[in-house]
Amino acid sequence: MLLIDKPAGHTSHDVVARARRALGTRKVGHAGTLDPMATGLLTLGVGASTRLLTYLVGLDKQYETTIVLGRATTTDDAEGEPLGSPATVEALEAVTDESLAREVARLTGPIEQRPSAVSAIKVDGKRAYDRVRAGEEVELAARAVTVAAFDVLAVRRTGAAIEVDARIDCSSGTYIRALARDLGAALGVGGHLSALRRTRVGPFPVASAIDLDRLADEGPAALLPAASVAERLFPVLRLDAEQAVDLGHGKKLDLTGQEDAEPVAAVAEDGRLVALISVRRGVGRTLVGFPA
Question: Which family does this protein fall into (predicted)?
Answer without folding.
Answer: Belongs to the pseudouridine synthase TruB family. Type 1 subfamily.
